[in-house]
Amino acid sequence: MTHRQLHLNAFLMNTGHHEASWRLPESDPYASVDLAHYVRLARIAERGTFDSLFLADGPQLWSSVGQRPAGALEPITLLTALATATEHIGLIATASTSYNSPYNLARKFATLDHLSGGRAGWNIVTTAGAEAARNFGLDAEPAHAERYARAAEFLDVALKLWDSWEDDAIVADKAAGVWGDDAKIHPPRHQGRFFSVEGALNVPRSPQGYPLLVQAGSSEDGKRFAARYAEAVFTAQQTIEDARAFYADLKARTVAAGRDADHVKVLPGIVPVIGSTEAEALAKERVLEDHIVHAHGVRHLERLLHLEPGTLDLDGQLPSDLPPESAIEGAKSRYTLIVELARRERLTVRQLIGRLGGGRGHLTFAGTPEQVADTIELWFESGAADGFNIMPAVLPSGLETFVDHVVPILRARGLLRTGYGDAGRTLRERYGLPRPANQHVAAPALV
């Protein structure tokens, strides 16, 4: 029995990650704006002793509203509501460094960390795509390297803001009439290339010091950024060999950046479709694939691959002359993953759309609870993952099935906690991470 245990994160997306999930009889097509739906999902994940749940986000309409539920509630607001409906599970929100300001975002995450008792996490994204750029008055998206340079300065400013209050700045001396110690407030007075931020944050330092820092880019710029800042990395890998290579590379980069390799947790995504038999699981997968409207998939794939409309043939393979990743300014790593998947398995466009319909490039797996548990254990024990981003194809049923049938197997194998009691109270503690020291407080001298 291993002492190292899995970290599980529930990646929640309206009716499920499969693009056709909303068409099933069980699904509520209005779930994406229903608080009760998300409360139910959060409580299911908490029953399964997941470390955290995660909400993706972007400052643009993600897809054609004809294709799938496209509305998305603002995640920090939604997670604040979920904080009052749960007790233990971590709450991770996506927020962009390209289209936010450090002061406002640092304040929002500090607030969520206070209100949740230390359960906040930030999935840091740089936001690719011309659509988002045009929503903020830009003619085109900033270059890939430029977005990451801005993100690095954004994080540096946010860290200064979260540390602008020392932990014991609040004195609360009623007799003396002194509420706080001004000497323990440290305005950033930051002047940089992208940001100018003068004053201290107007929220005291939060229970975790600052939220768990999560990152999801797998490009070269993304991995350099993760090695410097990230404490958890959400990644998409199609094969265990690619996952092992990514895991080893990121851990090595983290050490080279002067950090402990165990202080960054690597969580690939998996989209499980679970049946009591393998045949039942495969039948569920076929039902979902049969509900895909391929015209939507073609348009989306042409945009992602930077192709002119009408280029792709459903029953043909991808063109042989696609541009290399170096020529892509958008989501570089996802572009490469999709092209390599299509080339490696010689998929037609129709087959590729079917594969992407479930997980947009993440690993999809149809099988019994034991087979799903076997796959998770193999990746975990083989140096490919510290845990997984669980991405149910259909919600809430897919998450309920995972918690009711896969979680008990993982617990019986000693891979997953049976309760939250000894795992610590904050999200950082659940991930086995130390609370960061305030940069303005000198470390105690060694005796």
Account of the 3D structure:
By secondary structure, this protein is of the alpha/beta class. The protein has 2 domains: 7-275 and 368-431, Alpha-Beta Barrel (TIM Barrel); 277-360, no CATH class. It has helices spanning 35-47, 75-83, 102-116, 130-134, 144-162, 220-229, 240-256, 278-290, 294-304, 332-344, 349-359, 369-381, 397-412, 427-430, and strands at residues 7-12, 52-55, 90-96, 120-125, 170-173, 178-180, 190-191, 196-197, 212-215, 232-235, 265-274, 363-367, 387-390. The strands form 3 sheets. It has an 8-stranded parallel beta barrel with strand order 1-2-3-4-9-10-11-13, surrounded by 7 helices. A two-stranded antiparallel sheet has the order 5-6. Strands 7-8 form a two-stranded antiparallel sheet. The chain is globular, with a radius of gyration of 22 Å. It starts with 6 loop residues before the first strand and ends in a 17-residue tail after the last helix. It comes from Streptomyces tuirus. This is Monooxygenase. Belongs to the NtaA/SnaA/DszA monooxygenase family. Keywords: Flavoprotein, FMN, Monooxygenase, Oxidoreductase.
